[in-house]
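The material for today's practical consists of a large collection of protein records. Read left to right, the backbone structure tokens trace the chain's path through space. An example says more than a description, so a record of this kind follows:
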Amino acid sequence: MLDTILAWISALLAAIIPGYGDAPVPHYSGYVEGEYVYVAPSVTGRIKTLAVVEGDTVKADQFLFDMDSTKQQAAVRAAEAKIGTASANLNNLETGSRDPEIEVIKASLEQAIAHRNLAESALKRTEDLFAREIVAQAKVDVDRAALEEAEAQVAQLKAQLEVAALPARSAQLLAAQKTLEAAQADADLARSQLDDMTVAAPVEGRIETVYYKAGEVAAAGAPVLSILPPNALKVLFFLPEAERADFALGDQLEMECDGCDTGIKVAISKMASEPQYTPPIIYSREERSRLVFRAEARIPAGATLLPGQPVSLRRVK
């Protein structure tokens, strides 16, 4: 008789209250997490200017901070000076000797020709005197040697003049060209390192955390600040081992939290293939109930949530 009464009451409640008697919908606990972009300098240095504070909204390519660049500026000046030296050396090799140097050689050549003419006249006079037996053979030999020396000097200066008008040999030109290219590469590197001392925002978003102050030394690769881009929130939650097989990527869940808008739906974007919080023993039926699998779901744009906020999810019917 009691069973009949209870069954009648249950049927009446089911007719009055929608969903009465249905199995309770399981809830899964989780929390909101942000995918931050960490901004760091590429070289170690002292922070000169920090233009943002926590909570600021920045756009992509907006100036964030810069480092002291005294050394990099000096390196750029030194590299540019090396370019000037290498370029002048190459130009000198390509064009031959300068005009003043050629003029000096020409003047020396004219002087040598005059000496040769004088030596030639002296030799003729000596030979005439020798023919009349006025001078000895030794005098003729001395004057002839002087003429030969003067002619050799003229020939040498003519050769120098020809060489001075020629460009350098191909091997010298190639070496000078490579020296100039190396100097230009060093200058490009120095300018790039100088540019690296100024850091701009790689993405738009909100400045979440600032880890350094102006005047402090930041190491290369160490984040100076973090940015939370828009639509970079996700919810992390955990599925019991017994229910893991019932879910697939793309399945939707409804999210609830204190102060949140109602009806926020998220879709599963990632599920771990290995369980967590598992003791290192053989899985028994009792131990399997302790296994959970980490899962992630992307939060839609416009949801007013904060990283670290606890949430609860239930499967959409």
